[in-house]
């Protein structure tokens, strides 16, 4: 992390049954695409920094090197678990208390889906790969920071298609206000923060896109109320690019800020970059292919990506009877584990339940390399490995 790669053995106890982080994900830790000035993610991050620097007189502090390994809740790390020593530097300075929290600190309810092994990568029962940069809100507040941007890689188990990848990048923004700020306006503090937030983000969208069609949608997050999502019109559809809202008072109170209000946002850098640079597939961000990397220059936002010729896709279907524990995320992880970035999409194309109550799923897997043509042999080999592994790991019955 921060240029240092960490090995799986440094972090995971081999016999830990909770661990569901495959090696393909481990290899992404420490890649830090957001700190590469010539990479679309780094270029976008810098452009957002420019917006905040020039509109807020550099009041926003920037953090981009906090460890993606975080705890689920407040943990005393003494003696530290294996993973604990890789928690972010801020936490280590608080040793033996680790403050860095993905869930409890930001009020994520105990039964929220995002806590499940199906959605989140667990290193051990109390340590996860952060699934959002909101994991750092509370620790930074406790450290006395009041206005900040946190950028980093986040990890989510998910389905496979052109806009979803198990590792992506987010930028969190956080801004605390004092009574003087809203008193003058004559508005109620929550309304004041909500209006300021929307104004800030609309300004950011204009700074990045010039004109673009956008809309606000009301939503729910455990850590904000009211909460909103901003969607941008892209390729004939509305694409969610950020979540935000007025911070729950309980979060501020934890840091003695009960007389303040705050707003927060978390935006998805890949989603924005796909729109800005016309990047058609999220896997491209991880490509070393010069035909991709050479198209972007430091400081040049919105240069349109010229796709190199698309190689032909290869479709393979697989059908099986599922068991009760089956989930699509687990299936996708198996496919990704075997095919890596050669898998473009996994789609459920048929599902039915027979008279005995057994349910069958048929998935279509799209294999395609962004760099070359795949041979039949190679794809058949991948598919046969998928069939073996699915049977072995997922307790399903192939049809
Ligand atoms: N953490 C939320 C997500 O990842 C985004 C968010 C951040 C929402 C801050 C509100 C406030 O979806």
From TrEMBL:
* Listed SMART domains: FDX-ACB
Q: Locate the Aminoacyl-transfer RNA synthetases class-II family profile domain: which residues?
A: 147-307
Reactions catalysed: tRNA(Phe) + L-phenylalanine + ATP = L-phenylalanyl-tRNA(Phe) + AMP + diphosphate + H(+)
Q: Give the top-level enzyme category.
A: ligase
Give the Pfam families listed for this entry. FDX-ACB, tRNA-synt_2d
Where does it live in the cell?
A: Mitochondrion matrix
Tell me its EC number(s), please: 6.1.1.20
For this protein, the record's InterPro entries field holds: aa-tRNA-synth_II (IPR006195), aa-tRNA-synth_II/BPL/LPL (IPR045864), Fdx_antiC-bd (IPR005121), Fdx_antiC-bd_sf (IPR036690), Phe-tRNA-synth_IIc_mito (IPR004530), Phenylalanyl-tRNA_Synthase (IPR002319)
What are the protein's UniProt keywords?
Aminoacyl-tRNA synthetase, ATP-binding, Ligase, Mitochondrion, Nucleotide-binding, Protein biosynthesis, Transit peptide
Q: Where is the FDX-ACB domain?
A: 309-399
Give the family per the record.
Answer: Belongs to the class-II aminoacyl-tRNA synthetase family.
Name used for this protein in its record: phenylalanine--tRNA ligase
Species of provenance: Brassica napus
């Amino acid at each position: 992390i921060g240029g240092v790669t960490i090995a799986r053995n440094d972090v995971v106890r081999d016999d830990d049954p909770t661990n569901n982080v495959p090696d393909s994900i481990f290899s992404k830790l420490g890649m830090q695409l957001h700190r590469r000035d010539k990479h679309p993610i780094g270029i976008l991050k810098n452009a957002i920094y420019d917006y905040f620097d020039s509109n807020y007189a550099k009041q926003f502090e920037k953090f981009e090197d906090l460890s993606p390994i975080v705890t689920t809740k407040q943990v005393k790390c003494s003696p530290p678990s294996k993973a604990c020593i890789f928690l972010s530097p801020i936490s280590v300075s608080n040793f033996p208390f680790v403050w860095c929290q993905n869930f409890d600190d930001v009020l994520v309810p105990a039964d929220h889906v995002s806590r499940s092994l199906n959605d989140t990568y667990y290193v051990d029962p109390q340590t996860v790969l952060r699934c959002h940069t909101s994991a750092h809100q509370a620790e930074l507040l406790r450290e006395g920071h009041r206005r900040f941007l946190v950028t980093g890689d986040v990890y989510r188990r998910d389905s496979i298609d052109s806009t979803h990848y198990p590792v992506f990048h987010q930028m969190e923004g956080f801004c605390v206000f004092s009574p003087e700020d809203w008193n003058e306006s004559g508005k109620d503090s929550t309304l004041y923060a909500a209006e300021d937030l929307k104004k800030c983000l609309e300004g950011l969208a204009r700074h990045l896109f010039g004109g673009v069609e956008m809309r606000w949608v009301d939503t729910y997050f455990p850590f904000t109320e009211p909460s909103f999502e901003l969607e941008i019109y892209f390729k004939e559809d509305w694409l969610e690019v950020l979540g935000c809202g007025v911070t729950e008072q309980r979060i501020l109170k934890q840091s003695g800020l009960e007389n303040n209000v705050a707003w927060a946002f978390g935006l998805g850098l890949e989603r924005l970059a796909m729109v800005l640079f016309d990047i058609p597939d999220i896997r491209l961000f991880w490509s070393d292919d010069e035909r991709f990397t050479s198209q972007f220059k430091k400081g040049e936002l919105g240069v349109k990506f010229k796709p190199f010729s698309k190689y032909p896709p290869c479709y393979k279907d697989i059908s099986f009877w599922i068991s009760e524990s089956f989930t699509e995320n687990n299936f996708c992880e198996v496919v990704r584990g075997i095919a890596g970035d050669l898998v473009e999409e996994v789609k459920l194309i048929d599902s039915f339940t027979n008279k005995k109550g057994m349910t069958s799923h048929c998935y279509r897997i799209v294999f395609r390399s962004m760099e070359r043509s795949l041979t039949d042999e190679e794809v058949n080999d991948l598919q046969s490995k998928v069939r073996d592994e699915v049977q072995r790991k997922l307790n399903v019955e192939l049809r």
